Amino acid sequence: MALRDRLQTELKEAMKSKMADRVSTLRLINAAIKDREIANRGEGGEASVDEGEILAILGKMVKQRQESARAYEEGGRLELAEKELAEVKVIEEFLPRQLNADEVEAAIGAAIAAVGATGIRDMGKVMGELKAKYTGQMDFGAVGPAVKSRLS
User: Fold this and answer.
1) Residue 45 has pLDDT above 70, yes or no
2) CA dist., res. 82 & res. 73, Å (int)
3) In CATH, what number is assigned to the domain containing residue 88?
4) 117 and 79 in one domain?
């Protein structure tokens, strides 16, 4: 089942089960996807978004909520932090399994070999290769410095 269809099915099930928090989070996901479609249409591109874009949107949403939860915890607003972390759990249901540190290192090595990277100037090619294969499975903010250190 396509990710978009799965989101719609889960939203309907959550509505039937009267799970208000889950419905709210699933609606936020759908709104973010719709926003991307509108942005694509405005750029003259195709309006629909593919699986890779949806995974990127979901990854971004998880990161935003984790940062918000951290800020709320630092500010002593634990109830808001818990709400953000609950949203993270719902969003993560639609993301593929995250790679562990060893798998990330192996993926970096494979990407370097695949593009024939020899120096730091090839970092963009390596990151492009990783994003093509592992979107939603790794944190590219953390992977970037690892790639850089391997290439320098």
Assistant:
1) no
2) 9
3) 1.10.1510.10
4) no
DSSP, residue by residue, 125-141: HHHHHHHHHHTTTS-HH
Say whether pLDDT at 25 is over 90. yes
Please check whether residues 79 and 135 belong to one and the same domain.
no
Asked if 58 and 87 sit in the same domain, the reply is yes
The amino acid at residue 129 is: E
Domain total of the chain: 2
Q: Could you report the per-residue pLDDT of 83-133, keeping only the tens digit for each?
A: 999 999 999 898 888 888 888 888 888 888 888 888 888 888 888 888 888
* Cβ proximity of 104 and 133 under 8 Å: no
Residues 73/81, Cβ–Cβ less than 8 Å: yes
Task: Compute the distance between CA of residue 19 and CA of residue 22 in angstroms, rounded to an integer.
Answer: 5
Q: What CA–CA distance (Å, rounded) separates 78 from 69? A: 8
Q: Which domain holds residue 47?
A: 3-92
Residues 23 and 68 both lie in one domain: yes
Residues 50 and 105 in one domain: no
CA distance 121 to 125: 9
Alpha-carbon separation of residue 49 from 41, 55, 85, 123 (angstroms) = 10, 10, 26, 27
